[in-house]
Design goal:
heterodimer, A: about 425 residues, mainly alpha, ABC transporter involved in vitamin B12 uptake, BtuC, 2 strands, about 75% helix, elongated, B: about 425 residues, Arc Repressor Mutant, subunit A, 2 domains, two-stranded antiparallel ribbon, 18 helices
Chain lengths: ~425, ~425
């Protein structure tokens, strides 16, 4: 492990693009790639094609090696990006087409088809690779970086190509976000409203393929799928609107590309791909915990607030039914059905007092006017819902109590009004 | 090209064990639509294996298994947690978990690389079958001494033996449970089988199989071994027991042929040997494609020819009925209403004869067939009107399509609810 302080200084320098032309270039390249994969990956994830991207990534290997062989035939000295990427794109797309052909057979399901294509194409790539390494071993140096991703071997021209293609992909993604979104959320409905779903799907997978292939020099073909899946999966936790998810996902992709490339160029010996994926993974875990509404903390918080409100409602209901002040030590008896401990009751009453639903005097606890009206509402909701369950939902009168206890707290005002309207003939008012 | 015990015996043994052991489990992954769990686990156990290696400092298989089990458990649980707590769709949950795990694994390898030189990410991906050399082996297979062989077996092959035995006994012992859980999880629930328990055991065994196979063949061949022979067997049979047997045979065949071709093909141009693990995968893929096209049950080739046969039969039956009615009504038969190919086929089958004046008429055989078809048509008509309750003027159109089908069911009391032997699709 490097010494902490110089390491952080170094890292800061790289991060702020102050440590030389080359590393800055690489960082910009991976960041632009991050934006592209964030945008395109969102559609892949929403279309539930996440692992199709994995198959695509693995299926590029024979093409990458084949492209390398061809480029050697045409006089290249070592791995050059363009022929490798072109070969990879060809075999990746072939892999996707094979998956789509296989799933048409009734005995082959999508998961098996993806696994088949992934392993067989990759196996073929390994065979080709061993062939290449046996015959032209000296020139293969650097081919490995296409499997695990080593961005530092990229040249200026490579980065420019990556940036240009990424920009193009982002523009396409943004332009077609409407049809893509339609197909992602409900393909059947999209088809019925006249969208050419097959062609949209093809374009979408085509863009995924392009990002996969362009991402290979930076992240490696083993992990390119992570770059496509992790940022959108994290972004989905933050929002439910497509446009927001797209922006957040692109931002997470960019940050992981930027910080990951910076980290890997600061730390010795670490391939870029895994570091980028790890940064994205950290962002994902953070999102999982802290995202508003869908994050773990937010949901825990929501749950607790709801439970508290339900407890308060129950307490008010009991106090209202009791009519008149209750002495502090009689409360346990009053709330016996709930099975609360004395400490819980104490805290509950303090909360109710701070909301001025109850007041404490020498005579004991009593409801304030607001508390009284709140208690009355709750009891009324309870009665309404009981009546509804018995008369409309055919629930036996003896079974009603339990389910009412659950529901009475979540009745909205409109629902209550509706219930009143419907139950009027039954004599409830 | 002949096999030499020193170079080929253990690699061959290892490939056969990997393929057979993994296939046994893979059958159920494929049936339960969990093929990609194999993919996921084979990537995700990497940090467990590397972590155990760095922690214990040895390649002792027991430590590696332990690491893999921990990683496998963590993977299964975190995917489940992401699906339930994070409400993330299972495809992306698997993708997120395994790619992050794999990234951690590769980084651990790189970090460990500085202290331990013999960990290589490539070995994890492609395996090192070729390194399983038997140094003091005899020169030919005839001279192999069983006792010496037994002592010479390397640990990685031993762990494969254990893995294969574990898989086989799991499938044997829990066959009934596995079958119910695979075909009807709902039924399993009502019968009191723990679907989740069986599933977890299957996943753990897949993790163990992955690790046992890692060193020898690499993670990619593991995925192939789990999925490809089982998928091939699914194309060949509809019965679970037969499917498992067939898949094991296919696995054995692929392992041997794949290994053999990896050493033989390079001799065509005199190069060094090809990667055996890759070659086995390619051969398995080839066998799968063969089954996809030529499987007698579900292959495209035979399905197409079956459809063509049926079409011919229907056309010929229509032809003889047409000729028969023209005989009965006296309206002359016009050959332009029938495809000339069908006419010549009818003549070829001896159903139709041509007079010297070029007139077509039925042979005795053809007349017999026509009567039979018309009889079937009227029986279907009766069935449609009496039993199905079709309006009499709607029945003929349907009966004309059904008349080509066997109507023996109608005579047996038309029990449509006869049990079928096919598993539900």
């Amino acid at each position: 492990m490097p010494d902490p302080l110089p390491f952080w200084l170094d890292f800061w320098n790289v991060l702020t693009l102050q440590s030389g032309y080359n590393s800055s270039l690489v960082i910009l390249g991976t960041a632009s790639l991050g934006v592209a994969s964030g945008v395109v990956g969102t559609f892949a994830v929403l279309r539930r094609r996440a692992l199709m991207a994995d198959a695509l990534g693995h299926a590029t290997l024979p093409g990458v090696v084949g492209g390398f062989l061809l480029s050697l035939l045409f006089g290249a000295k070592g791995p050059e990006m363009l022929p490798l990427l072109f070969g990879g794109a060809c075999s990746g797309l072939l892999g996707i087409l094979v998956v789509q052909f296989l799933v048409r057979h009734p005995r082959v399901r999508e998961d098996a088809a993806i696994g088949l294509v992934l392993s067989v194409f990759f196996g073929f790539g390994i065979v080709l690779l061993s062939l290449v390494q046996n015959s032209v071993a000296t020139q293969t140096a650097g081919l490995d970086s296409y499997i695990y991703g080593q961005a530092s071997t990229m040249t200026r021209a490579d980065v420019l190509i990556i940036a240009a293609i990424s920009t193009l992909v982002v523009v396409m993604g943004v332009l077609f976000r409407n049809p893509f979104g339609q197909v992602c959320f409900d393909a059947d409905f999209a088809a019925s409203t006249g969208w050419p779903v097959d062609r949209i799907d093809l374009l979408m997978m085509g863009l995924v393929a392009v990002v996969c292939v362009v991402g290979i020099p930076a992240v490696g073909l083993m992990l390119v799928v992570a770059f496509l899946i992790v940022p959108p999966a994290a972004a989905r936790l933050w929002s439910t609107r497509l446009s927001h998810i797209l922006c957040i996902s692109a931002a997470i992709g960019a940050v992981s590309g930027w910080a990951g490339a910076a980290l890997s160029s600061t730390l010795p010996n670490l391939p870029t791909g895994p570091v980028i994926v790890l940064v994205a993974g950290v962002l994902f875990v953070l999102s999982l915990i802290f995202a508003p509404r869908r994050g773990l903390l937010a949901r825990k918080w929501d749950e607790q607030r709801r439970n508290r409100r339900i407890a308060e409602d129950h307490a008010l209901e009991h106090l209202f039914e009791h009519e008149g002040p209750v002495l502090g030590d009689r409360l346990v008896e009053l709330f016996a059905v709930r099975g609360w401990s004395a400490r819980q009751i104490n805290r509950l009453m303090q909360r109710l007092r701070s909301k001025s639903f109850v007041a404490h005097s020498s005579g004991g606890w009593s409801l304030t006017p607001t508390g009284r009206s709140r208690g009355m509402t709750i009891q009324r909701n309870h009665a309404l819902w009981t009546q509804y369950l018995i008369s409309y939902a055919d629930v036996a009168a003896t079974h009603v109590d339990w389910s009412v206890d659950q529901v009475e707290h979540v009745l909205s005002e409109e629902l209550v009004a509706q219930l009143e309207e419907q139950l009027r003939p039954e004599g409830v008012s | 090209m002949t096999f030499v015990p020193a170079l080929d015996l253990f690699p061959l043994l290892a490939s056969v064990l990997v393929l057979v052991g993994c296939t046994l489990l893979g059958n159920f992954l494929v049936l339960r639509r969990q093929s990609l769990m194999g993919d996921t686990l084979s990537h995700a156990v990497l940090p467990g294996v590397v972590g155990a290696y760095l922690l214990f400092g040895t390649r002792d298989p027991l430590g590696l298994f332990l690491g893999a089990l921990v990683a496998g458990l963590l993977t299964v649980f975190s995917i489940e947690a992401l699906r339930r707590i994070g409400r993330i769709e299972s495809n992306s949950a698997m993708g997120v978990v395994f790619s992050i795990a794999f990234a951690i694994g590769v980084i651990l390898i790189q970090v460990g690389h500085t202290d331990h030189v013999d960990l290589d990410p490539n070995c994890v991906l492609y395996g090192q079958l070729e390194l399983l050399v038997w140094f003091d082996a005899p020169l030919s297979f005839a001279d192999v001494d069983p006792e010496k062989l037994f002592r010479a077996i390397p640990t990685s092959v031993w762990s494969l033996v254990i893995m294969t035995l574990l898989s086989a006994s799991f499938v044997l012992v829990f066959f009934k449970e596995l079958r119910i859980v695979s075909f009807d999880p709902g039924l399993a629930q009502t019968l009191g089988f723990s679907s989740a328990g069986i599933n977890l055991m299957l996943m753990m065994l897949v993790a163990v199989a992955t690790v046992a196979s890692f060193e020898a063949v690499g993670s990619v061949l593991v995925i192939a071994a789990l999925i490809v022979p089982a998928s091939t067997a699914r194309l060949l049979t509809d019965r679970l027991k037969t499917q498992i047997l067939v898949s094991v045979l296919v696995a054995f065949f692929c392992a041997v042929l794949g290994y053999w071709s990896s050493t033989w093909i390079p001799h065509l141009w005199g190069g060094g040997s090809l990667k055996a693990s890759g070659m086995i995968t390619v051969i398995s893929g080839g066998v799968f494609v063969l089954a996809l096209f030529f499987s007698p049950r579900h292959g495209y080739w035979f399905q197409t020819s079956r459809v063509r046969q049926l079409a011919d039969q229907v056309a010929l039956e229509d032809l003889v009925v047409l000729l028969h009615t023209s005989e009965a009504t006296g309206v002359p038969f016009s050959r332009t209403t029938v495809h000339p190919k069908m006419l010549s086929l009818g003549i070829h089958r001896g159903l139709v004869e041509v007079s010297s004046s070029g007139q077509h008429f039925l042979s005795d055989l053809g007349r017999e067939l026509a009567v039979e078809v018309q009889g079937r048509r009227s029986r279907w008509m009766m069935y449609l009107v009496d039993e199905v309750g079709l309006a009499p003027d709607h029945a003929p159109a349907t009966a004309e399509r059904l008349e080509h089908l066997d109507d023996s069911l109608l005579e047996k009391g038309t029990d449509a609810n006869q049990p079928t032997k096919q598993p539900p699709a």
